[in-house]
Amino acid sequence: MAKHFAVAGGGWAGFAAAVELARSGHQVTVFEAARSLGGRARRVAFDGRELDNGQHIMLGAYSESLRIMRAVGVDLRSAVLTLPLQMRYPPGGGGMDFLAPRLPAPLHVGIALLRAKGLAREDKMALARFTTTARWMDWRLNNDCSVAELLERFDQTPRLVALMWRPLCLAALNTPPERASAQVFLAVLRDSLGARRAASDMLVPRADLSALFPDAAAAWLQGKGNTVHLGAKVTSIGSEAGGWTVEASGAAVGGDWTGKFDGVVLATSPTATAALLASAHRAGASEAVNPSEFAELASQLAAFEPEPITTCYLQYAPDTRLAIPFYALIDDPATQRWGQFVFDRGQLDAKHAGLFAVVISASSDAASLPQEELAAAIAAQLAADLARPELGNPAWSRVITEKRATYACTPALKRPANETPAKGLILAGDYTAGEYPATLEMAVRSGVQAAHLLAKAKP
């Protein structure tokens, strides 16, 4: 029997849940407090330019994200640029050049390692030893530890750590290796380096992050008779016989609004979710459960430590290009070298000709600087690394910091399940229990799982 569900939150997790519920034959209403869709991965506008609030790379291993994007009509061939696994630094800058050929796994990694420039024999032997041992361990640890401890245990060389493992850890987990979970890092490596060759492909979005999935999902849902409210914040939830009440406010719902649903997916941030769970508890939603269970869930949500990501956009003359779509950069905050990756947006979207995006993961220290100072330091870093003095003087710059881009993915971090103590109330988000860190794929997987749990729940 078809039911009517509410989804609070119009990010990747929320729309994954909404699409899956609609595909199961149910009616869905999505509430998004902001004026744009995407949550912490969205389109923003500055000075007449439409940009992303953070430059992303997806992986071929993101099977659920790719599946659900196809389901709502996204043409992946035009939406993303597919590149082989690589870690390439600017020539002459003291880095390395690691590029995997399009051959079956694990041959592609082996040949890339043999051909890699900038790595000594001991570095290559260390990488081979790491991947071989990790496969033998089935990419699992009996006891979690930090990525730094894992690398030391596997006798990884300082140069390989600096040029390969540290930047990969920062990009995937947005947490420094000294604090990052080794088990989660291994799970990412298992599904990329340790899987079929296509799983290790690097997918760089051509479309902005709102258009890449949330906008398409909203249009698909509305085309099937479902409702999407922008600028409508869910303020409280409560249970009553046979269902749930949702209170929302905003112009999209005519001010203050109340509706009844068969179930609710909370796909908001951990902080916002904790507040809504508190409102549900006060409303009597947990009468059939032990109140301590809600208290334990609230404490889990409060334990998440936010980690920022900063993206610095630099606009140059339209004919300014990199030799390849993106480079890794050697960062060294002590010498004002903040950039970790630089992307040539013009090679992804013709409208962005001459626009470079420089990413800084786990960017607390960088984000504390004045924006003009940080942009100038990054421009100087590009000019030096690429041996192109003109890059030191961009025509325009903008620094965007998403302060709560992810959470610190620390060892043995306890993450809540999708199910809550209250029947018909489900969580969705990249912070819920799963093998992956706070990525788009984890958000989508959580949303899909939330939909399956809600759709099969008995009244």
In short:
This protein is an alpha+beta fold and 459 residues long. It is built from 15 helices and 20 strands.
Low-confidence stretches: none
**Helical proportion?**
25-40%
**Shape type:** globular
Spatial strand arrangement across the major sheet: 10-2-1-14-20
Instruction: Using the CA coordinates, give the radius of gyration.
Output: 23 Å
Q: Tally the helices.
A: 15
**How much of the sequence is in beta strands?**
15-25%
Structural class: alpha+beta
- Distance between the amino and carboxyl termini: 11 Å
- What is the tally of beta strands? 20
Largest sheet: 5 strands, parallel
Estimate the mean pLDDT confidence: 94
Q: What can you see in these coordinates?
A:
With 459 residues, the chain is α+β, with helices and mostly antiparallel strands. The chain contains 15 helices and 20 strands. It has helices at 12-23, 63-71, 76-79, 107-115, 121-136, 147-153, 158-173, 182-190, 209-212, 214-223, 270-282, 291-302, 364-367, 371-385, 440-456; strands spanning 4-8, 27-32, 43-46, 49-52, 58-59, 80-83, 86-88, 97-99, 202-205, 227-230, 233-240, 243-250, 255-261, 263-266, 306-315, 326-328, 341-344, 355-361, 396-407, 425-427. Strands 10-2-1-14-20 form a five-stranded parallel β-sheet, covered by helices on one side. A five-stranded antiparallel β-sheet has the order 16-17-18-15-19. α11 runs antiparallel to α12. The protein starts with a strand and ends with a helix. The model has no long low-confidence stretch (mean pLDDT 94).
